[in-house]
């Protein structure tokens, strides 16, 4: 791991949370703080109608009013962040349009204009982006007219390419399109570009290296969190060699790739924008822990656990899980897990190296190993002992013969 | 018939104090792990989906990381489970993410897009990738040219592909996951692979279910999960089971 931006272990939580974690977060992520805090708003008539149209509960309507007031009063980002984190998040896309840019410090008047088409289409990642966007039908609302969707897909390609062209150090990864489409379904093209560009420089930066080493490193935080919360589950999953790829798409698409309901996706985006870049991993841990019983009932083998976990049921209690992820973050902050994550990274690297080395030797050793296997499987117990004993005796006799027939005079014994 | 039903039919449940004890007669079920690789957008997901679920997916998406699908097939009375690992095609994933999935594979399916020359030209890199992960050269490998329904766009000549396949000692199949008429063809490709695996004496022994034929075992605290492979047994009446996890 290198580079300042990636050094999330040492980064101050406040850089990401922009509110005092010890005081504010504990209160804001508690699931029942906001909802019961229902003060029937002294709303004007049109405001009431608006809430009715938006289908908001009285608690949410009150929260909406608070958010609107915060927006009107001037930019207090920490207040907006806490609204984004706590129950219900930013509630509606109408609020998201206003709050997301403010959370990320996007100034609508300073958005870089779109480069010309040749620049966008000439980029090294252009073909890959087009292929992925063409295949992203699932991400658009089911009732959307084909022409409208085609137009939006063209815009999506432009949004992605603008980010890449403006930031030559960034590399496209499959899944980045899932992030961009989410924003494009809520805000317009220019704002979507500006938001995604900011995120690419902060939360998503590590995913956009030329390789995925830093992404892999982030995934290595998963097991230390699970281990602290449930050692039994961690041991089971590790015994199955489950690995972390099942949650790769959760992390790098902020769950956009795996959830079916856009409402859940944008709610999570509220949360992630306001939090540390590792928060998707804490949420992954919360989901895994929530599904603990199912996992322990599944056979202890990678394919079955991978298969179970890689599909997220639509009916998960997301608010509860968000709250749990926040609790896990506070209990086991990244800096406390950094050394263990680093250790796991090294372990994985060593395992890969061993695997390669073993493979090279495999062809030579295969027949030898098979002989041993044959012996151990075909010989009865006493025979196996006999075989080993014979081998040991033969080794001693050979050594003795060698010793007796070798001229040891050339060794100077004082070497030892 | 789901695999779950077949499990129920083949076991005898004897309630006992405290835990449910199940006495069952299990036959051997071999499991083969097959990895499907190739460039992005060549149709790896569609091919595996077509084989596992019998249809072309409505809405395809880029694969991020690795997807798992499986299907049990009946070969000459033996139930064989094929586990298909569908991998992401983008280079960055194959370089650092997919290695874990090369472990203990029994066969490899290389896929290219017959309408896209670059996906064919990149094949040596994929073969090198396998070599780098030390996959045994004797493992069954097949070479699949997908999207051959797009007849007017074909860019990779069959002779060229055949030559390449021959030089790497692989059979070549040209097919289309999309074309319903070719659905049997896709099945046949994977069944050929299954036959090869069944009849070959693989270097790495195939994964076995944990019980040997005719063996009687007690299993305590059995869960009803259909994924619980330890409980899967062979029912002679069982048809092909499809447990596609698509």
TrEMBL record, chain A:
PANTHER family: RE60063P, TBC1 DOMAIN FAMILY MEMBER 20/GTPASE. One of its GO terms (cellular component) is endoplasmic reticulum membrane. Keywords: GTPase activation, Membrane, Transmembrane, Transmembrane helix. It comes from the Eukaryota. It is a multi-pass membrane protein. It is found in: Membrane. One of its GO terms (biological process) is Golgi organization. One of its GO terms (molecular function) is GTPase activator activity. InterPro entries: Rab-GAP-TBC_dom (IPR000195), Rab-GAP_TBC_sf (IPR035969), TBC20/Gyp8-like (IPR045913). Residues 1-58 are annotated as: Disordered. The keyword Transmembrane applies. Pfam families: RabGAP-TBC. Residues 90-276 form the Rab-GAP TBC domain. This is TBC1 domain family member 20.
TrEMBL record, chain B:
It is an enzyme of class 3 (hydrolase). It is found in: Endomembrane system. It is a lipid-anchor. GO terms for cellular component: Golgi apparatus. One of its GO terms (molecular function) is GTP binding. This is small monomeric GTPase. GO terms for biological process: Rab protein signal transduction. Transmembrane segments: none annotated. SMART domains: RAB, RAN, RAS, RHO. It comes from the Eukaryota. Residues 226-246 are annotated as: Disordered. Residues 237-246 have a biased composition (Basic and acidic residues). It comes from Patella caerulea (Rayed Mediterranean limpet). InterPro entries: P-loop_NTPase, Rab33A/B, Small_GTP-bd, Small_GTPase. The keyword Hydrolase applies. It catalyses: GTP + H2O = GDP + phosphate + H(+).
């Amino acid at each position: 791991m290198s580079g300042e931006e990636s050094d999330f272990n040492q980064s101050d939580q406040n850089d990401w949370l922009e509110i005092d974690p010890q005081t504010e977060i504990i209160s804001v992520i508690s699931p029942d703080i906001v909802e019961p805090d229902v003060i029937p708003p002294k709303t004007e008539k049109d405001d009431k109608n608006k809430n009715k149209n938006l289908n908001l509960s009285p608690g949410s309507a009150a929260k909406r009013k608070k958010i609107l007031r915060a927006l009107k009063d001037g930019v207090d980002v920490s207040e907006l962040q806490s609204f984004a984190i706590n129950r219900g998040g930013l509630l509606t896309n109408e609020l998201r349009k206003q709050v997301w840019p403010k959370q990320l410090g996007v100034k609508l008047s300073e958005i870089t204009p779109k480069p010309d088409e040749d620049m966008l289409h000439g980029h090294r990642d252009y073909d890959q982006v087009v292929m992925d966007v063409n295949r992203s039908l699932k991400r658009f609302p089911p009732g959307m007219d084909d022409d409208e969707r085609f137009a939006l897909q063209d815009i999506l390609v432009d949004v992605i390419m603008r980010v890449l062209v403006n930031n030559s150090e960034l590399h496209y990864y499959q899944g980045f399109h899932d992030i961009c489409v989410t924003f494009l379904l809520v805000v317009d093209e220019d704002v979507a570009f500006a938001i995604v560009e900011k995120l690419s420089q902060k939360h998503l930066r590590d995913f956009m290296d030329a390789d995925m080493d830093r992404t892999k490193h982030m995934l290595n935080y998963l097991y230390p969190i699970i281990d602290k919360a449930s050692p039994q589950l961690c041991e089971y999953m590790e015994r199955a060699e489950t690995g972390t790829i099942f949650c790769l798409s959760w992390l790098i698409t902020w769950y956009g790739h795996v959830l079916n309901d856009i409402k859940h996706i944008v709610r999570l985006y509220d949360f992630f924008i306001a939090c540390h870049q590792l928060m998707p991993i804490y949420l992954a841990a919360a989901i895994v822990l929530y599904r603990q019983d199912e996992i322990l009932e599944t056979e202890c083998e990678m394919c079955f656990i991978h298969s179970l976990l890689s599909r997220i049921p639509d009916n998960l209690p997301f608010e509860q899980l968000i709250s749990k992820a926040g609790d896990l973050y506070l209990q086991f902050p990244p800096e406390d897990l950094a050394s263990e994550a680093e250790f796991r990274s090294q372990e994985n690297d060593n395992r890969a190296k061993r695997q390669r080395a073993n493979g090279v030797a495999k062809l030579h050793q295969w027949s030898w190993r098979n002989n041993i296997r044959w012996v151990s499987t075909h010989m009865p117990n006493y025979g196996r002992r006999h075989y080993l004993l014979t081998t040991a005796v033969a080794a001693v006799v050979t050594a003795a013969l060698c010793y007796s027939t070798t001229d040891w005079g050339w060794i100077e014994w004082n070497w030892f | 018939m789901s695999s779950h039903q077949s499990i129920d039919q083949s076991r005898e449940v004897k309630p006992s104090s405290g835990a449910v004890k199940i006495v069952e007669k299990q036959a051997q079920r071999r499991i083969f792990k097959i990895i499907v690789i190739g460039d992005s957008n060549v149709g790896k997901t569609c091919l595996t989906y077509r084989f596992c679920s019998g249809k072309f997916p409505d809405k395809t998406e880029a694969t991020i990381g690795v997807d798992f699908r499986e299907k049990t097939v009946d070969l000459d009375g033996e139930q064989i489970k094929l586990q298909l690992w569908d991998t992401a095609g983008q280079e960055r994933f194959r370089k650092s993410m997919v290695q874990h999935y090369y472990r203990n594979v029994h066969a490899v399916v290389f896929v290219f897009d017959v309408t896209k020359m670059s996906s064919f030209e990149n094949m040596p890199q994929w073969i090198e990738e396998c070599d780098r992960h030390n996959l045994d050269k004797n493992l069954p490998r097949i070479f699949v040219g997908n999207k051959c329904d797009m007849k007017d766009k074909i860019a990779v000549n069959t002779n060229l592909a055949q030559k390449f396949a021959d030089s790497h000692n692989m059979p070549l199949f040209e097919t289309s996951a999309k074309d319903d008429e070719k659905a049997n063809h896709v099945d046949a490709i994977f069944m050929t692979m299954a036959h090869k695996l069944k009849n070959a004496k693989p270097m790495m022994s195939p994964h076995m279910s944990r019980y040997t034929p005719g063996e009687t075992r007690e299993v305590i605290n059995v869960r009803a999960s259909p994924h619980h492979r330890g409980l899967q047994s062979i029912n002679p009446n069982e048809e092909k089971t499809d447990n596609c996890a698509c």
